[in-house]
Amino acid sequence: MTDKILLLPDHIANQIAAGEVIQRPASAVKELLENAVDANATFIQLIIQDAGKSLIQVIDNGSGMSETDARMSFERHATSKIQTIEDLFHIRTMGFRGEALASIAAVAQVELKTKRAEEETGTYIEVENSVVNKQEPVALPNGTNISMKNLFFNVPARRSFLKSNAAEMRHIVDEFTRVALSFPQIAFSLTANGQQIFHLDSGTLKQRIVQLLGNNYNSRLVSVKEETDYMNISGFTGKPETAKKTRGDQYFFVNNRFIKSPYLNHAVMNAYQEMIPRDSFPMYVLFIDLDPAQVDVNVHPTKQEIKFEDEKIIYAFLQAAVKHALAQFSITPTLDFDLDASIQQLPSIQQPFTKQKEDATASTPIFKGFTQKNQAHFIEKSDSKTAGLKHWKDFFESQKTGIANPETLNQTEKPSINPRHQGFAFIDDIVPTQLLNTYIILPTENSFLLIHQQAAHERIIYERLSEATMGKAIATQRSMFPLTIELSASDTVLLEDLMPDLQNLGYSIESFGKNTFVVQGSPADVEQGNEKRVIESLLEQYKNFSSDMKFSKREKLIRSLAWQQSIKPGKTLTEKEMKTLAEELFKCDAPNITPNGNPTYMEFKKDYLEKVFKG
Ligand code: ADP
Ligand code: MG
Question: Which numbered atom of ligand 1 lies nearest the CA of 63?
Answer without folding.
Answer: 25
